[in-house]
Each structure stands twice: as C-alpha cells, then as structure tokens.
Design brief:
The structure is a single chain. With 354 residues, the protein is of the alpha/beta class. Helix content is 49%, strand content 15%. The chain is built from 18 helices and twelve strands. It has a seven-stranded mixed beta sheet, sandwiched between helices. A three-stranded antiparallel beta sheet has the order 1-3-2. Helix 16 (262-275) links the parallel strand 7 and strand 8 (281-286). The structure holds S-adenosylmethionine. Residues 170, 189-191, 194-195, 211-213, 216, 239-241, 254-256 line the site of S-adenosylmethionine (SAM).
Length: 354
C-alpha cells in the first residue's frame, strides 16, 4: 500500500484546493434541494422564537426526526441553521432569510424553484445548450407563464416568489439614483405599480405616469391606492411598442428590456426618445453583466433564464448599442455591484446623432 500517494490525495482535499472546490460545486444542487425542502416545510418560521430540539421541529413540520436532523446538520455545516446543543437547532443570519416574514425573504423563491416541473427543466439544460431553445418548453410542453396560468394552484406561489424578489431588486437599484427634483416620472411597463408606488411615497410632490398592458391597470390602481399615492398618478393602459406617454422628465424602464429582443428594445427606447424633452433622462433598471470572469449574480440568473424562457441580460456595451440605435447616449451606470443597476441615458444632441 502506498501511504505517500494516499496522503497526497488527502492533501488535495484541504479546503481551498481545486479538488475540494469542485466537490463543493458538485454538491451545490443537493444543497439547493435541501434548502428547498426545509423552506417548503417552514423550518425557519418554527425557530423564530428560539432554538428547538429536532424531535419537536419534526413533529411541528410533519417530518421524520432522524432525516430532518441529518439534513439540518448538513445545512448547519454551511452556516444555514446552527446546532446550538446536541440535536437542538436555531437560526443563523443565513437561515433568517428563509423566514416568511423577512423583508427580503427567499422562502417562496426556494419553494417555487423546488417544484418538480422547474427541476425537470433545469435538468435538461443540455437540450438548451445544444439547441438554444428553452428546456422548460421542451420538458413541460409550454412556456413557463402559460404553464402557471393554466394552474391556479401555482399562481399565488409564482406571483409571490417572482414578485417579491423582483421588487426588492428594483427598489435597491432605484434607491441608488437620486430622483430629487424630478417632477414627472413615467414608468414604462409599470406592472402592478409597486415600484412606482414606492417612488411616489419616497418623493412627495412627484407626479407618476404609468403605462402597461390595459389588463394590468386595475391591479396597479389597487396598489397605488393602498399606498395612498393614487392621486399623484395617471395610469394608462397601452402598448409601449406603439407609443409611450409624453411629459416625463424621467422615463423609468424597470425590468422590462431583458424580456425583449434587440429590435423590440430599440422600438421602446425610440418611442421614449420621440416624446422626451432634451433635458430628460431614461433610467433603465436591469441587470448589467460585467465583462470577463468577474462574478456577478446575474450571470447565473441569465443562464437560468436561458432554460426557463427567452429573456436575456445585456452587458453595458450591449445597452450602449441599443440605446445608440434609439438615439440615446449611455451616460452612467449606477449600482453596478447590485443584481440590477440603473443605466442612465440622455438624448444625443441632434448634431451628435449619427
Ligand atoms: C417584469 S414586468 C416589469 C416590472 C415592473 N417595472 C415593476 O415595476 O414591477 C414587465 C411588464 O411589461 C408589461 N408589458 C409587456 N409587454 C407590454 C407592451 N407591449 N406594452 C405595455 N406593457 C407591456 C407586462 O404587462 C409587465 O407588467
């Protein structure tokens, strides 16, 4: 037996070796499955008042105590939950994010992505790589949005999981840009109006104009009304590929362009360019993918979207190009490290625009 070889193999397993890093990456999907399962069981919610013995947790979540113990022990090794004394688990700052009442809760997102029809699509990413087509449609026979639309039991979870995380990301981005002094903000593709409601609340005196598909308007009315800012807003049902409302000194295009082809993106931006004043600005809130090997949450999200649908994220240079085609100049990108940034654009002067 060659002990020398055995020892060198073991040395390869020290925590920052390439081998151990690859083993870590290899186990990533299984850690995700464990997190999805405990999110669905609501384990973190049960620990809000303090640590509990695993037998009690198992009883409260309808689980097998030994299996739950082994999963929580594995997760505690990753810093999610902590075994405060033998077989007694409590929350850590990571586990807090799985609480339903956490302001940035990921519980619904874990739960949603843990659904079998989502797993089935991710497993087939090879199909997407080979064909360039979304594996979701290949596996489930329809688009993600239609799949959910046909299943009322999924709609609540889908709305909560996508909606909440998306809203938080958009708000974090808009907070990096000072809107003081803006008189009229036009929200292009304003959806349920959550982001507009937040901005109008933060900047009293600002007027908000909104355009989205007419079927979205009643929901937005409800959200703006609940926030007490409906009086400051004008809601327009329309098609942003046809025209957008005039009169904004800021045009907010938040989480819209990644869902559109380059041609449609240029159409929306051109429609804005046509009605905006020379001193007004377009704020595109979207993930901006850094060039090169720089890690960024969006790189994973963009490849997720490749499997799930047809949206794609852009680099700053790609944004500059579609803006240029629409007669706009990219002047700044704010909040680059965030999942979504604010790309700021202004009209090219008539003479500059080639
Ligand atoms: C992901 S949402 C954008 C999120 C939104 N900005 C917010 O504040 O939460 C995209 C929105 O674009 C809207 N949309 C899609 N196509 C449209 C079109 N041709 N004209 C107007 N709105 C459209 C959708 O109805 C949806 O509400």
């Amino acid at each position: 037996m060659n002990h020398g070889t055995d020892v060198s193999y073991m040395k390869e397993l020290h925590s920052d070796s390439p081998l151990s890093t690859m083993i870590e990456l290899h186990s990533g999907v299984r850690i995700t499955y464990m997190l999805q399962a405990v999110a669905e069981l609501g384990v973190a919610d049960r620990l809000i008042d303090g640590p509990l013995p695993v037998d009690e947790l198992a009883e409260r979540t309808g689980s097998d105590a030994d299996a739950l113990y082994r999963v929580l022990r594995a997760l505690a090794g990753k810093g999610v939950f902590t075994e405060v004394s033998r077989r007694v688990f409590g929350l850590t700052s990571l586990a807090e994010v799985l609480r339903s009442d956490h302001p940035n809760s990921l519980r619904d997102a874990f739960h949603m992505h843990g659904q079998k029809f989502m797993h089935d699509a991710y497993v087939e990413i090879g199909h997407t790589i080979r064909t360039g087509q979304p594996a979701f449609e290949h596996v489930n026979g329809t688009t993600l949005f239609d799949y959910v639309a046909q299943r009322p039991e999924l709609q609540g979870l889908f709305g909560k999981s996508m909606g909440k995380a998306n809203r938080q990301i958009q708000l974090a981005a808009t907070e990096t840009y000072d809107l003081t002094g803006v008189k009229t903000l036009v929200a292009v593709g304003g959806a349920q109006g959550h982001v507009l409601a937040e901005i109008l609340t933060r900047y009293p005196g600002m007027r908000g104009v909104y355009i989205d598909n007419p079927r979205m308007v009643p929901a937005a009315e409800g959200v703006l009304s609940a926030a007490g800012v409906l009086e400051s807003a004008e809601l327009i049902g329309g098609d942003y590929l046809e025209a957008v409302p005039s009169g904004g000194d800021v045009y907010l295009v938040s989480h819209v362009l990644h869902q559109l082809s380059d041609a449609d993106t240029v159409t929306v931006l051109r429609n804005i360019r046509q009605v905006m004043a020379e001193n007004s600005r377009v704020l595109v809130v979207n993930a901006v993918i850094p060039e090169g090997d720089v890690p960024h949450p969006t790189k994973i999200l963009d490849s997720t979207m490749l499997v799930l649908g047809r949206s794609r994220d852009r680099t700053e240079a790609e944004f500059a190009e579609v803006l240029r085609e629409a007669g706009l100049r990219l002047v700044d990108t704010v909040g680059r490290a965030l999942p979504s940034s604010v790309v700021v654009a202004e009209p090219f002067g008539g003479a500059d625009h080639v």
